[in-house]
C-alpha cells in the first residue's frame, strides 16, 4: 500500500510503532526554534481556515494573478463560446495575501513553500520552470493544489500511527516560507537516528550517480557525524527520528528537515526492516553510509508517478473541461508577468 508523507513514497510494512506525538514533534514550527541557527532562514504564517478550505476544494483551479492586496475578496472570470457563457469566481484573501507578500519580500523575493510537514515536491512539474521556487501566493497555490503530499498533510497526517485508538492531536496548520537557496541534489543526505544514535546515512537523491560522493565518502560521513553530535543529538524531543542535511561546497552541514522515524518517511537506500532490527547498527561502529555507486544503478524519480494531474484526468473523462482553461490562463498570466519582470530588469540595468 503506497502512502505519502513529507516528500517521499513509502511502503507500509509495520516495522515501526510510530506514535502521533512523534508526528506532532516533527512539525516545522516545533523543531525550527530549536535548530534555527543551523538551518535556512524561514518565516511561519498561520493558515486561515478559508485558505485551507480552498486548498482542499477539488473543484476548478482558479487564481487571480499575483493576488494583489485589494478590497475585493473575489474576482470573476468569464469564458464563453457560441452556445454558453460560464462565470467562475476566483477567491481572494487580501489580509493573508498581504502577510505572504511581506514575508516573501523579507526573505529576498523568492521562497520555498511547505506546510507543517510536507513540501509539494510531487507537483514541481506544473510550475513554470519545473521548480518549487515561488514569488507570489498564486505560485504557492498552484503547487499546493496540485500536490498529493500537501493533501495528505491536511487530511491524514496520523494515518500510519500505531496509537489509532487515541484522539488525534489538534493541528494548527501553517504556511512555511523558506528563503530560496540553490541546493545541489548531490549534497543532500538523509540520516536515521535510533535511541539518539546515528545509525544510517543515505544519499537523498538516490536516483542519480554523483561522482564526488564516491570520492569524498569518508569526509562526508564524518562531517555529518560531527554535525549530529555537536548540534542535533539529545536536542530533539524524540530519541528516534530522521533528519535531512545539506553539505555545501565549503563542507559546512545544514539541517534541512526533520521527519518521524517510521514508514511514513522514505527509507531511501535502506529498508525499515534493516533500520529497526538493529542489523544496520551491528554491522559497523559508525553509521552505515549508502549512495548510488555507478550510473548503472540510476533510477527514475519516485515522483514521476505523480506527473499526471488529476485535473487532466477529469478533462480526459469529460468531467470538467474548464479546469484546462483555468490552467492555461494561469500559465499565460505567469509567463506575461515573467516577461514584464525581465523587461523591467533590462530597463533598470546600468548602461
Automatic annotation (TrEMBL):
<keyword id="KW-0479">Metal-binding</keyword>
<keyword id="KW-0143">Chaperone</keyword>
<keyword id="KW-0547">Nucleotide-binding</keyword>
<keyword id="KW-0460">Magnesium</keyword>
<dbReference type="GO" id="GO:0005737">
    <property type="term" value="C:cytoplasm"/>
</dbReference>
<protein>
    <recommendedName>
        <fullName>Translation initiation factor eIF2 assembly protein</fullName>
    </recommendedName>
</protein>
<comment type="similarity">
    <text>Belongs to the CDC123 family.</text>
</comment>
<dbReference type="InterPro" id="IPR009772">
    <property type="entry name" value="CDC123"/>
</dbReference>
<comment type="function">
    <text>ATP-dependent protein-folding chaperone for the eIF2 complex. Binds to the gamma subunit of the eIF2 complex which allows the subunit to assemble with the alpha and beta subunits.</text>
</comment>
<dbReference type="GO" id="GO:0046872">
    <property type="term" value="F:metal ion binding"/>
</dbReference>
<keyword id="KW-0067">ATP-binding</keyword>
<keyword id="KW-0963">Cytoplasm</keyword>
<dbReference type="Pfam" id="PF07065">
    <property type="entry name" value="D123"/>
</dbReference>
<dbReference type="GO" id="GO:0005524">
    <property type="term" value="F:ATP binding"/>
</dbReference>
